[in-house]
């Protein structure tokens, strides 16, 4: 089955810093790749996705590029805000009925 | 109107009790899920239903019994609650299986004392 490796958190940055959260995956076939975000006290919500190699997903200033050669889907943002503080989950589709294989999540803390 | 709604949001109960969590989605999706999130935020799928049919039943104690009366509802009943059942339980839905685009409820925090 699929598996995901994400940076261990918490990751603490100052406001306006550059953000990278690494994600590498193992999967059979050609999965679609997703980043989900969980704000405090809420459920997960889809942040961005990419469905094929070299695709770039983007939303709310976040970007991630599907790198098939390195099996990676790193999340980046040029200038983070306090409101970006959340837990971020990388997830490839499993190709099966369960839909997604979630990583362990990376807790991001942005300080003013 | 909340797309995926769960009730109750908080549940505190004693060991050995039986409790239920309800989930409803108004998105017209045909697939619904239950996930368990532990204190370290690790998410594990428990069950998946497609058009009221059980399609995923991960290694979950049989004290956990899901029930889908129709496509828009997926409930979770837990018998004989144990301390280790304390977690946040998330309901989610998607249009079809394997799409990866899930819509989550806000979660139900279960605390077993």
Structural features, described:
The complex is a heterodimer of chains A (112) and B (113). Chain A is mainly β. Helix content of chain A is 0%, strand content 46%. Chain A has strands at residues 3-6, 11-14, 19-21, 23-26, 33-38, 44-50, 56-59, 62-65, 75-77, 86-92, 106-111. Chain A is globular, with a radius of gyration of 13 Å. Chain B is mainly β and 113 residues long. Chain B has no helices and eleven strands. Chain B has strands spanning 4-7, 10-13, 19-25, 31-37, 43-50, 53-57, 64-70, 73-78, 87-94, 103-104, 108-112. In chain B, strands 2, 4, 5, 6, 9, 10 and 11 form a seven-stranded mixed beta sheet that branches. A four-stranded antiparallel beta sheet of chain B has the order 1-3-8-7, with no helix packed on it. The model of chain B has no long low-confidence stretch (mean pLDDT 93). Chains A and B meet through strand 5, strand 6 and strand 10 of A and strand 5, strand 9 and strand 10 of B.
Secondary-structure element sequence of chain A? EEEEEEEEEEE
* Overall mean pLDDT of chain A: 92
Question: Helical percent range of chain B?
Answer: under 10%
Number of strands of chain A: 11
- Describe the sheet with the most strands of chain A: 5 strands, mixed
How does the helix and strand content of chain B classify structurally? mainly beta
Number of helices of chain A: 0
The chain-level mean pLDDT of chain B equals: 93
Shape of chain B: globular
**Oligomeric state, counting identical vs distinct chains:** heterodimer
The first-to-last residue Cα distance of chain A is 41 Å
Please state roughly what percent of the residues of chain B sit in beta strands, choosing from under 5%, 5-15%, 15-25%, 25-35%, 35-45% or over 45%: over 45%
SSE sequence of chain B, one letter per element:
EEEEEEEEEEE
Helix % of chain A is under 10%
How does the helix and strand content of chain A classify structurally? mainly beta
Protein chain pair with the most extensive contact, residues per chain: A-B, 27 and 27 residues
């Amino acid at each position: 089955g699929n598996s995901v490796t994400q940076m261990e958190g918490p990751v603490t940055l100052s406001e306006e810093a550059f953000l990278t959260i690494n994600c590498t995956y193992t999967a059979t076939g050609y999965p679609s790749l997703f980043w989900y975000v969980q704000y405090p006290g809420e459920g997960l919500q889809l942040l961005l996705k990419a469905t094929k190699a070299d695709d770039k997903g983007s939303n709310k200033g976040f970007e991630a590029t599907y790198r098939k050669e390195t099996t990676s889907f790193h999340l980046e943002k040029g200038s983070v805000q306090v409101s970006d503080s959340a837990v971020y989950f990388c997830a490839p589709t499993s190709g099966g009925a369960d839909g997604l294989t979630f990583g362990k999540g990376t807790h991001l803390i942005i300080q003013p | 109107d909340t797309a995926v709604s769960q009730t109750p949001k908080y549940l505190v109960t004693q060991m050995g009790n039986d409790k239920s969590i309800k989930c409803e989605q108004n998105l017209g999706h045909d697939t619904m899920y239950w996930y368990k999130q532990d204190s370290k935020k690790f998410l594990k799928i428990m069950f998946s239903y497609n058009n009221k049919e059980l399609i995923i039943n991960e290694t979950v104690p049989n004290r956990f019994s899901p029930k889908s009366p129709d496509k828009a509802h997926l409930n979770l009943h837990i018998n004989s609650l144990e301390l280790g059942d304390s977690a946040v339980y998330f309901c989610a839905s998607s249009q079809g299986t394997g799409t990866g685009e899930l819509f989550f409820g806000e979660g139900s925090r279960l605390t077993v004392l």
